[in-house]
């Protein structure tokens, strides 16, 4: 013989308000989960957007630096050519410069009148 108490008409051993309270809590928990997931989804979207913007900015900076590098290399080339040209001009000039061949260049203190004597008239 068993002393079991028959279940309520709803099929649950809990009283009606306890079951309703449990259902209400479960519904609130579900709502909190949905809100938390939505909030997390929005935060993840913001994070991905921010990461994409950062990558775009870095790419723009990279392209700008590449252009500047190319420009500077071009300038180096031009300046190197100019230096070669000026070196040649100086070398040619040294061959004919009277100041370099003047015996007065061995004077320790140059005087304007001594230099004038070396210049062609």
Task: Explain how this protein is built.
Helix content is 76%, strand content 0%. The protein is mostly helical and 121 residues long. The protein has a domain at 31-101. The longest helix is centred in the middle third of the chain and has 81 residues, at 16-96. The N and C termini lie far apart (146 Å).
**Tell me, what's the shape?**
rod-shaped
Low-confidence spans: 7-12
Straight-line N-to-C gap = 146 Å
Q: Please give the count of helices.
A: 3
Compute the average pLDDT. 81
As a percent range, the share of helical residues equals: over 70%
> Could you tell me the number of beta strands?
0
Largest sheet: none
Pfam families: bZIP_1
Organism: Aquila chrysaetos chrysaetos
Domain BZIP: 30-93
Family: Belongs to the bZIP family.
Structure summarized in a few sentences:
The protein is an all-alpha fold and 121 residues long. The chain has helices at residues 16-96, 98-101, 112-118.
């Amino acid at each position: 013989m068993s002393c079991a108490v028959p279940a309520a008409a709803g099929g649950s051993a809990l009283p009606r308000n306890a079951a309703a309270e449990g259902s209400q809590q479960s519904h609130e928990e579900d709502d909190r989960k949905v809100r938390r997931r939505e909030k997390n989804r929005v935060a993840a979207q913001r994070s991905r957007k921010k990461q994409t913007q950062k990558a775009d900015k870095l790419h723009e900076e990279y392209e700008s630096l590449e252009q500047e590098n190319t420009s500077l290399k071009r300038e180096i080339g031009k300046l190197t050519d100019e230096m070669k040209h000026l070196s040649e001009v100086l070398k040619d000039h040294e061959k004919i410069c009277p100041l370099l061949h003047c015996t007065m260049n061995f004077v320790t203190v140059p005087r304007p009148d001594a230099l004038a004597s070396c210049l062609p008239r």
